[in-house]
Design brief:
The protein is an alpha/beta fold. Helix content is 50%, strand content 14%.
């Protein structure tokens, strides 16, 4: 684990999740907690957000994880198997009681049928809920769904969680792809997630980062197109016009706003990649 925590400082990822739940055996959890909290507090991760995934409050380790994470300096806590607003409130009360700053966000994993059906209520439970994260592996097990390349058995659940996130202005992250040797399947899942509206995908290995960034990040063509939209919109605004025309298409404020989002995303990805290259 110490080696992985150090290597994470060089990865071109937006977020680093220090996992205290599924990735850690029961006997190793106290030690893993100490290492994760020390690493989060030690910094050195640049512009990457550090998130600590804790064990659930219904486990022997959950409250200790939350109390330690509250003072860790992490940007957020990731709570597993959230099924109700009450779980959100309980987690937030716990970290507040242990000194968490107001800036610490709560990310909620949606990985059960009850969680999917309550996704909108979970998203609305507190202004400190910042992201909904799909736990597709556990969800598929709970549904009794068979794995397919197209993920059709999960389509309804994925869509409902994206809807809940968008309705409340939250980030939506797609679930992991477990087969590290299935590059084509992973790329297909990334493209599907992006097409559905997810902001990104949770990963289990550094070898998946490049393909995920390519799928969720804007292409060179998209960036060039966004810059053209911004230019013609700004020119129209300077001339006192509310709309512009680009290649026969009307350009309004909403198109310019989306174009600026694309350019900002591209610049953020570029900054992360540059930082990772400098440290390599």
């Amino acid at each position: 684990m110490p080696r992985a925590l150090d290597k994470a400082r060089t990865l071109p990822a937006d977020v680093l999740i220090f996992d205290l739940e599924d990735a850690v055996a029961p006997d190793a959890k106290p030690g893993a907690r100490a290492m994760a909290v020390a690493a989060a507090g030690g910094g050195g991760y640049g512009r990457r957000e550090v998130v600590v995934r804790v064990n659930g409050l219904d486990t022997p380790w959950g409250r200790d994880d939350l109390s330690a994470a509250a003072r860790s300096g992490a940007a957020a806590v990731l709570l597993p198997k959230v099924e109700s607003p009450a779980a959100v409130v309980a987690a937030l009360d716990t970290i507040a009681a242990h000194g968490a700053p107001e800036s610490m966000a709560l990310w909620c994993m949606v990985e059960t049928p009850c969680g999917v059906l309550a996704a909108a209520a979970i998203a609305a439970a507190s202004p400190r809920v910042a992201a909904l994260v799909m736990g597709t592996s556990d969800l598929a097990k709970e549904l009794g769904a068979r794995p397919t390349r197209e993920r059709l058995p999960l389509a309804t659940s994925l869509g409902l969680v994206v809807l809940a996130a968008r309705a409340h202005g939250l980030v939506a992250l797609d679930g992991v792809h477990l087969d590290l040797d299935d590059e084509d399947g992973f790329i297909a899942a990334c493209r599907q997630g992006r097409d559905m509206g997810f902001d990104g995908k949770t990963l289990i290995h550094p070898k998946q980062i490049a393909a995920a960034n390519a799928a969720f990040g804007p292409s060179a063509e998209e960036i060039a197109g966004a810059r053209r939209v911004i230019d013609v919109h700004d020119a129209a605004a300077a001339a006192g016009k509310g709309v512009a025309v680009l290649d026969g298409r009307l350009i309004e404020n909403l198109h310019a706003a989306e174009a600026r989002r694309v350019v900002a995303l591209a610049e953020a990805i570029g900054a992360l990649e540059s930082a990772a290259t400098a440290r390599a």
